[in-house]
């Protein structure tokens, strides 16, 4: 009986000790987390104050896909700049969509991305210089193919938390922020001309959208004197922003306002979901579809 | 120098009943009045607004001008008056007429009162109807792409047109670019 009482006493004390230790342990864990958070904040402040790092860096998480769709050949082309020296040179992502129906559509889109790759690194701060380079590439294409081939251009240049955009033709640079998709670039198609005319005459513009030539390009890479639209100053981007650089094959298959539904926390899964969605839709006239999906995230520190 | 472009459109309405009035004195002043809540009193209120802006009062204190406008216009009248130079913009407003300013790659709401300006700052002011189909991000992107205030406005109009073919209410707006570096 004494032994039982003794054992019970030990068991009770052990149980009591465990009972007391659990909240003590949890409090310790919470305190450690607070300490860690505080330490990292202080550490960040110190390096910010010492100009080692002026601000928290935004990073690009990039994924891409490029598919033929129902077409016989792939006329889209893409380029993503090397991830080395990102803090110095930023990231350049390009999609070029060869104009269907022209003999050298695929050659020209490849030519565009290859020449941009050769021109990398580009100066982030001076978009006029880059625009001149791109116009030069367009002129080279014109001299080589004499309008027997052409391509669109959609290009972003991201450095830290700013982005410059370059475009020629009707490919897409789409920003997805707070669950909303917004087309950032201007479209160089005949529809813009028609809308401008009707608006300046004080008329409604419905007829412009019914015009059979509305989607016709008024400018493209390979035109005699292309106008490459570009941002004069960079646009601020934020953590959580998604930027999609794509050919119109993507937005023809998935309406722009639906794009946010396909986005995941990780760009690679987002790209997969978009790709499989277009692929599984099995549209008989599905154009080539290419997209580069960029998610902006803060680095660890 | 301030480069600006005015846009007025009747939309899907029978007539254009609003007003955008530029007045160039030492500084540029622009008044915008919306017809949204005015109903039958619209023409009278627009006329009074125009007369006040056309008077010498436009060169005086904007707060005083605001008092005069408020006293003479119907309570439901919505308007904005801004005065802009290379260095600053001053604005007064009432109701659903407002402005947005592009500064350092971001779009911000133009505050009432005085704000300092720098070269290449870009401002768009308009009625609620004008802004109703424009996302902030698209206004910002278009401003960055545009070589001129007219081009910026054309991009914005294209976006509104993509939504409703310009078949909504009256549209009144102005785009401004500060060119103090010229």
Account of the 3D structure:
The complex is a heterodimer of chains A (301) and B (182). Chain A has 301 residues and is of the alpha+beta class. Chain A contains eight helices and eleven strands. Chain A folds into two domains: 49 residues; 240 residues, PPM-type phosphatase domain (Phosphatase 2c, domain 1), CATH 3.60.40. In chain A, strand 4 and strand 5 form a beta hairpin. The longest helix of chain A has 48 residues. Chain B has a single domain, classed as Phosphatase 2c, domain 1. Chain B is 30% helix and 35% strand. In chain B, helix 1 runs antiparallel to helix 2 and helix 4 runs antiparallel to helix 5. The chains are: A alpha+beta (301), B alpha+beta (182). At the A-B interface, strand 7, helix 5, helix 6, strand 8 and strand 9 of A face helix 4 and helix 5 of B.
For the structure shown, list the relevant keywords.
heterodimer; A: 301 residues; alpha+beta; Phosphatase 2c, domain 1; 2 domains; 11 strands; elongated; B: alpha+beta; 5-stranded antiparallel β-sheet; 5 helices
Output mean pLDDT of chain A.
Answer: 89
What count of domains describes the coordinates of chain B?
1
Q: List the helices and strands of chain B in order.
A: EEEHHEEEEEEHHHE
The main pleated sheet of chain A reads as: 6 strands, antiparallel
Gyration radius of chain B, rounded: 15 Å
Task: Name the poorly predicted regions of chain A.
Answer: none
Q: Helical percent range of chain A?
A: 40-55%
Structural class per helix/strand content of chain A?
alpha+beta
Q: Output the number of helix runs of chain A.
A: 8
How many beta-strand elements of chain B?
10
Choose one word for the global shape of chain B: globular
Multimeric status of the protein: heterodimer
Radius of gyration of chain A: 27 Å
CATH level 1 name of the largest domain in chain A:
Alpha Beta
Give helix % range of chain B: 25-40%
At CATH level 3, the topology of chain B is: Phosphatase 2c, domain 1
